[in-house]
Amino acid sequence: MTRQRNCGIYEVISSTGRKSYKIFDSQQAFESYLSKQNRTAARVQPVYQQAQFKNFPATQIRKLSTEEQRTYLQEQEQLREM
User: pLDDT band at residue 32, thresholds of 50, 70 and 90?
Assistant: First the structure.
């Protein structure tokens, strides 16, 4: 069963300085992950988060390529500017 919350995309920084992006359903879950995995973050707010939960039936969760991530975030930024 999935939680029906508007998850956020958070930027995570490893001990070597490598940046990655992960999805968490709450800021508390994100902060818990950081402390357990010895990771840091430049900010504790999500890089992106929908205003409210939106259900998409018959979809899959998969890892996006770096280019897909950039494209998606750019598209969302353009939509917010409208």
Answer: very high
